[in-house]
Specification:
Number of domains of chain B: 1
CATH superfamily of the largest domain in chain A: Thiamin diphosphate (ThDP)-binding fold, Pyr/PP domains
Largest sheet of chain A: 8 strands, mixed
Helix content of chain B: 25-40%
Structural class of chain A: alpha/beta
Mean pLDDT of chain A: 89
Shape of chain B: globular
Structural class of chain B: alpha/beta
Helix content of chain A: 40-55%
Low-confidence stretches of chain A: 1-36
Oligomer: heterodimer
Number of domains of chain A: 2
Shape of chain A: globular
Strand content of chain B: 15-25%
Number of strands of chain A: 16
Number of helices of chain A: 16
CATH class of chain B: Alpha Beta
Mean pLDDT of chain B: 94
CATH architecture of chain B: 3-Layer(aba) Sandwich
Number of strands of chain B: 10
CATH superfamily of chain B: Thiamin diphosphate (ThDP)-binding fold, Pyr/PP domains
Radius of gyration of chain B: 20 Å
Distance between the termini of chain A: 62 Å
Strand order of the largest sheet of chain B: 2-1-3-4-8-7-10-9
Strand content of chain A: 15-25%
CATH topology of the largest domain in chain A: Rossmann fold
Order of helices and strands of chain B: HHEEHEHHEEEHEHEHHEHHEH
CATH topology of chain B: Rossmann fold
Chain lengths: 417, 285
């Protein structure tokens, strides 16, 4: 038997604490809190950026360092208000370089850490993201993508960082990159990004379209108890036995925090399994291979893909994020005209869903790839098109700050049949 | 393991992993490492509560030798990483070891903003007037007219006065000493670890193999002698005639102020937000 008060106290500790300390106000306030908590947990209208912020909090993020940049700023603004209330830390750093470094430092001290930025800041963070990857430090970078190189069009959508999110940092390390297509999915994939960063001990990127970041949609958030939160495995061995990168742990090794008494060393230099710098070819090869293996051996866990009306499709559309929503509308219009079109939409864009794309290529005549760039997803599709002529991959490119509309896609569908 | 000498310094080193060290013969970095360890030991700090962070460069290789939690980061970014650690675990003593190029060229932005915030980090800035690790290029503290591999005709740029930079940015503890003055250095490091706020100690150090050779300073002993003869303590500066002070290294604690420290301020902000929390919760939705 649980009365309402105790079940609520699980969800919103602050509310119940306030209710407990001020007994007189209990009645009036608990009603208000109940309403608010039901609003929180049932259906609300929110922006993609808000969904990211609340997803981060629900995933257990307790450290945010960032720098203001359109169109991601709401994430920082909300977390600057919410984190201190929950005992977490918010800091506005002097630039994006400092932001990625601060969250990496905090993560090494045991925090669940996240930052949010947009194109110019994402470029500045690349070196730090490489550091988080080579040192296998969990952290999440949210990149709300805007249009164009350099300053570009800060409030217009673009999908220019599909390849940068994979290859942007120097050296060669694999990446985990997630890409939602709605406000609700922004919430879900933020939680997933944090979970994957903790599980795989790496820097995970969440790409968000500018229009999703700023679009308001109604969202039904799950009850907190139903949110699956993953946290890093802590070592149980005595400090003498601890290896910061334990090769015997099936690529997912326990992670100690600074201050836990393990007294370990972390360096961006190529290192051995204890974390000390090494120049030995065998150890260097092992380290780089380990970074690759933990991704390639867990493809099934990492790759998420939505297959929409693909069963009988003769034409497939491959699109992600906001462009996939235009594609879905175009598919409805095409199917009304009797054209069999389907959509393959990756929620995980890196590692790239090679198997799903190969299967798609086997089953359809033509693949249409609409994207808000000069052709970044289509590179991957063409890479996987071995036994077909190149004409089978049809691009729709748009880089003028406008979205690809359902009609743009429908027109191309009509051209290829 | 049986032959490890049991001086204080040896109790804090990572014997089985990291020796011999990477530094050239005559380099001051070993002396500074010793002073850091003796300062830690004399304070009886729990070594599990110490984290040492560095950037990239000769002096930044220092943490790997000490048996505490250690983090060797990106070029210029040590203070930014240290800020994250300190904020998440405010009870930890965070020591940053950095060089003149690391901290005042590529990392200058982080230095001034950490000083402005007055976050409790102890920054030991090893100033050898040159980029040693990359083979002797000009740094922001290479003196005017000095020779480096990227100023073969003499440096035309004026050099940074690092302590003035830190003072201007609002650091609450600023000190300068040299690698010759070992006890003084140890005392300053200890004082900075005890100081609640951002502290910066500039240690003028000798790079005889590159800077010394290019600028005909002689070997390590000659450079150390120069540090002894060419520096004056702050306490003597006012008493000495101007011509005896000019061009000399002024050693001493240049500032020691108590002003609000960042992590303490943040803890107060958290308490305030939590007090308001129940009322404003959900409003943003």
């Amino acid at each position: 038997m649980q009365n309402k008060k105790t079940s609520k106290s699980v969800k919103t500790p602050q509310a119940s604490k306030a209710a407990g300390t001020q007994k007189k106000k209990v009645k009036a306030e608990s009603k208000l809190n109940e309403l608010q908590s039901s609003l929180e947990r049932k259906t609300v209208v929110m922006q993609g950026n808000e969904a990211v912020a609340y997803g981060a909090l629900d995933a257990g993020v307790n450290f945010f360092a960032g720098y203001p940049i359109t169109p991601s700023t709401e994430v920082a603004e909300i977390l600057s208000a919410e984190l201190p209330k929950r005992g977490g830390t918010f800091i506005q750093m002097e630039d994006e370089i400092a932001s990625i470094c601060a969250i990496t430092g905090a993560s090494l001290a045991g925090a669940k850490a996240l930052t949010a930025t947009s194109g110019p800041g994402f470029s500045l963070m690349q070196e730090g993201m490489g550091f988080a990857k080579i040192t296998e430090t969990p952290c999440v970078v949210v990149n709300v993508m805007r249009n164009g190189p350099s300053t570009g069009m800060p409030t217009s959508p673009g999908q220019g960082e599909i390849q940068q999110s994979r290859w942007g940092s120097h050296g060669d390390a694999p990446a985990i990159v997630l890409y939602p297509d709605s406000v609700k999915e922004s919430y879900e994939l933020t939680i997933r990004a944090v979970n994957l960063s903790e599980k795989y001990r790496t820097c995970v990127v969440l790409l968000l379209d500018e229009v999703i970041g700023h679009m308001r949609e109604s969202v039904t958030l799950p009850d907190m108890e139903k949110v699956r939160v993953i946290s890093r495995i802590k070592p149980t061995v005595p400090p003498n036995w601890y290896k910061h990168y334990d090769e015997n742990q099936k690529y997912l090794s326990p992670l100690a925090s600074f201050g836990d008494g393990y007294r370990f060393h972390v360096t961006g230099l190529t290192h051995d399994s204890h974390g000390f710098p090494t120049g030995k070819p065998t150890e260097s090869a092992e380290m780089n291979d380990r970074l690759r293996r933990k991704i390639t051996h867990n493809i099934r866990d990492l790759v998420q893909i939505e297959s929409h009306q693909m069963e009988d499709a003769e034409i497939a559309i491959f699109a992600a994020g906001i462009t996939a929503r235009s594609a879905k509308a175009a598919i409805a219009m095409a199917r009304y005209r009797g054209i069999k079109v389907g959509l393959l939409r990756p929620l995980t864009i890196w590692p790239f869903p090679d198997d799903a794309v190969r299967k798609m290529l086997r089953n359809v005549e033509t693949v249409i790839v609409p994207e808000l760039n000069q052709g970044q997803f289509s590179r991957e599709i063409i890479r996987l098109t071995k036994d077909k002529s190149e004409g089978d991959v049809v691009l729709i490119k748009k880089v003028n700050g406008q979205l690809i509309t359902p009609n743009d896609i429908l027109r191309r569908i009509k051209e290829v049949i | 393991m049986a032959n490890i000498p049991q001086k204080i310094v040896h109790q804090y080193l990572r014997h089985d992993k990291k020796f011999p060290h990477v530094w050239c013969a005559g380099c001051s970095n070993g002396i500074i490492l010793g002073a850091v360890i003796r300062a830690i030991a004399s304070m009886n700090l729990n070594r599990d509560d110490i984290v040492m962070v560095s950037g990239i460069g000769c002096s930044s290789r220092m943490p790997v030798y000490i048996d505490v939690d250690t983090l060797h980061t990106l070029h210029g970014r040590a203070i930014a990483f240290a800020t994250g650690i300190k904020l998440h675990k405010p009870h930890m003593k965070v020591i940053v070891v950095t060089g003149d190029g690391d901290c005042t060229a590529i990392g200058g932005n982080h230095l001034i903003h950490a000083a402005r915030r007055n976050i409790d980090l102890s920054v030991i800035l090893v100033n050898n007037n040159i980029y040693g690790m990359t083979g002797g290029q000009c740094s922001p503290t290479t003196p005017h007219a000095a020779i480096s591999t990227t100023s073969p005709y003499g440096n035309i740029e004026p050099d940074f006065n690092i302590c003035n930079l830190a003072l201007g940015a609002g650091a609450s503890f600023v000190a300068r000493t040299t690698a010759f003055h070992v006890t003084e250095m140890q005392n300053y490091i200890q004082a900075s670890l005890e100081h609640p706020g951002f502290s910066l100690i500039e240690v003028i150090s000798a790079c005889p193999v590159i800077y010394g050779r290019l600028n005909k300073k002689g070997g390590a002993p000659q450079m150390m002698t120069e540090f002894r003869d060419n520096s004056v303590p702050l306490t003597a500066v006012e008493k000495l005639p101007k011509e005896q002070v000019e061009g000399k290294i002024v050693r001493g604690i240049l500032r020691k102020d108590i002003r609000p420290e960042y992590t303490a301020e943040y803890a107060a902000l958290q308490a305030y937000a939590q007090k308001l929390g129940g009322e404003s919760d959900g409003k943003e939705l």
